[in-house]
Amino acid sequence: MRYISVEEAGKKFELSARSIRNYCAQGRIPGAILSGKTWLIPEDAAKPGRINAKSEELDLDVIKEAEGLISFINESPVDFLAIDNVKKMLIAHGYKEVKEQYFLDFTNGEKAFIIRNDLTILAFNIGKNVSKENTSFNIIVSHADSPCFKLKPECDGRTDLYSKINVAPYGGMICPSWMDRPLGIAGRIIIEDGDEFYTKLVNLSEFTVLIPNICIHYNHNINTGYEYNYAIDLQPFLSLDNDVDFVHSLSKRVGVDKDSIANFDLALYNKQSGVIWGERREFLSAPRLDDLECVYLSAKAFVETDNPNSINVLYIADNEEVGSLSRQGADSDFLSSNLKRVSTSLGVKYEVAIGNSYLVSADNAHAVHPNKPELSGTNNRVYMNKGIVIKFNANNAYATDGLSGSIFQKICRNADVPYQFFTNRSDIRGGSTLGKELLSQVSVMAVDVGFAQLAMHSSYETTGVLDVSYGLKVFKEFYQSNISLKDNKYKVSK
Length: 494
Known about the structure:
Layout (H helix, E strand, L loop, with lengths): L2 E2 L1 H8 L3 H9 L7 E3 L2 E5 L10 H5 L2 H15 L4 H14 L3 E2 L13 E6 L3 E7 L10 E7 L4 E12 L2 E9 L12 E11 L2 E14 L27 E3 L6 H9 L6 E10 L4 E3 L5 E4 L2 H15 L7 E7 L16 H13 L3 H6 L2 E5 L2 E2 L21 E4 L10 H13 L4 E4 L11 H6 L5 E6 L1 E3 L6 E4 H15 L2 E5 L2 E5 L1
Helix pairs in contact: 1-2, 4-12, 5-7, 7-12
């Protein structure tokens, strides 16, 4: 990739240097990067179009995409229901469910999906022109779980006159964000019927509990570094009647006999709906944006595209927030074993197909904070509404390297979507995500991407409205792309 200076771009586009810098800062020139204090613009970049602030605010297509994300999040309060909603989306677009425990036989042009343990889903769209000599997988992976509180098997608790629900923390949440707000309960129940067991997904939308704060009069340290105790401070209550039997209440609400409920996997969720806000309606706040934003956009892009020359793959994993070490997590064999089964069914050598494949790990990134901008590095800092984030880490916490990142940059430019680079500040250790875990199972070229957001792991997070549309565009472009290697040169084409 060759870059030109701001002055050279100004001459090329017949714009002032100041306008070029503003367009770069706004993410309106795809591929422009900030090196120190100097913007570098791709030589083949197109002239940015002028945008009227009022017309951008009223762009109904952009708002509609964001509203679609909010609806998906509202209907997906926990990971079980997120996977079920993706399943419904796939079925509505002609995909059929196949069972992992049976023999799988796939053919060209087939569209199918597999679900494991109600918590992870893997979908395939096999191109009509895929052959033994020319096969690759275009994979996008995200995760459906978010930090929350999970109910214990014996969950009835009592303090004084109150009936409470005994819960345990899952993942690393921002504790105060769960307090003093209505919380729902959702997940699955396991029903025993003679010698058989089956599961039922539930959302107890009318069943509300709450975790109350201690008033400042009794806790003078609450604003000066108070440490919350999960077993004491963060237990929800549901009634002033201290004799409530939760499983009995559960059975009445789901229409199942109490004695037939063998067990359950239930969690609390924030019942507050998502909203679009800001001076130009440019922000979106909602629960579980990490990582349901990537789940929704990758699934929508998947069902709305076809690639006759590739096998498009949608993979939504679980348990990313606790290390991915589970049978439904990214560090399981779910992806690798089923990619092998598809390859075998098509008569394709798995190792050859993997060598031609590319994986996008999609999980959100930390935007520059309006009150604490110094927490982001001097360079490689990312902003909401400035385009998709490509994530790098010197110690391989992310899967991206220079080559895989360059290929994804090209896909962004082909989609006319701005992109930005993220690294943690050098003296602040960040987290990891799906890409690293997956590469131990499926060694493909991979990139870690996401969308800039604030308050990650709060029960209510914030992202950019424009980034929703950017994400859908670039994921569609990826699924329609063919990435090939010839004479030691990689090519991105359609």
